[in-house]
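Hi everyone, sorry if this is the wrong subforum. Our group has a chain we'd like a structural model of before ordering constructs, and none of us has done structure prediction before. Sequence below.
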Amino acid sequence: MHRRRLLSGAAALTGSAALAPSLTGTAQAAPQAAPRAASPVLPTPAEITTVLRRVADQWIATHANSGDNGWANATFLSGLLALQRLTGSARYLNYARSWAEKHAYGLSGGVTTRHADNHNAGQAYLDLYALEPDAQKLTAIETSLRRMVYTDQPAKNDDWWWDDALHMAMPPFARLGALRQDPQYWEKLYALYNHTKRIEGGPGLYSATTGLWYRDKRFLPGGILSPSGKPVVWSRGNGWVAGGHVKTLKALPSTERHTAEYRDALTRLVRALAGVQRTDGFWNVNLADAAHLPGPETSGTSFFLYGTSYAIAAGLVDRNTYLPVAARAWNGMVSTAVHTDGFLGYVQNVGDRPESSQPVTYDTTANFGVGAFLLGGTELALLPR
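Answer:
Right subforum, don't worry. Here is the predicted structure as tokens:
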């Protein structure tokens, strides 16, 4: 009998290394692991939706209290509202609306916050506004972002010092710019993004060589490395990057002057990920070292499914080449991580590196992991057949 639990904690390693020019071949299973190969056959939209509903329903049924408005819970609500748009479910809309109303559509830290994590709730508020327009739903998120654009140190662009921030805050800037027809939101978005990508820690957190991202400056070449001396390229960190790019591209017009760069970054990320996918459809917690805490992990895999599915639909990558990647990711998670009742396992809980919240097991879950799974599955279900 499996005992379900939420895990937390982190461990640190120190050392120095440079990211290898290519990660191809690093995703072989560790000697003690023999993952079962996942099918590359894509299920029907109805089959995918059935699983998504089961997972969403299980979470809601066991979380009558919809929780806080922090980044982790807001990610679940983002996934739930994506599924709501797919299914038209009144239950999902009511749950999300009740959550937002409980927090008066406010932000953790208030409207003066500049922290990307606190802006993540704004994504769900924007989703709810799109379904049922009401100006007060956007008061907090718009006030906070507008302050950053126009009045609160508008030249300060170093707020996004870790790659998770791209998922938390890129989309609200993109969506408000579109909603208000104010390109200054897009210019501020790019200035913050460019700092993360090219300036943070010296060279920036993006590796132009591999197309992957370091979680923060501690993991840049010369910093933290794995026990075997390889780079630490955290799976979920890159998952947050993938999710942020997808949501931003969904909001921006193709003519926006930075759209092409966002498209290119997502394309390169998706291509890099395909080369290090496990045979069971998952990705390891360290994309650069398959022997570093190997095993299934659902949150990063879900976001990679999300990014790959969108890239296929948008024509960024070849459908015939990358559809099997997406199908293997989905089929692997459904067969390995989804319990009969819809409980979603193998989620690495809160942390900032592979060692965080270990061990990751069949019974470890988290709200943001469920949200990522709903986002990825919904995007896969929407792919044209």
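For your construct planning: The chain has a mean pLDDT of 92. Residues 45-62 form the longest helix (18 residues).
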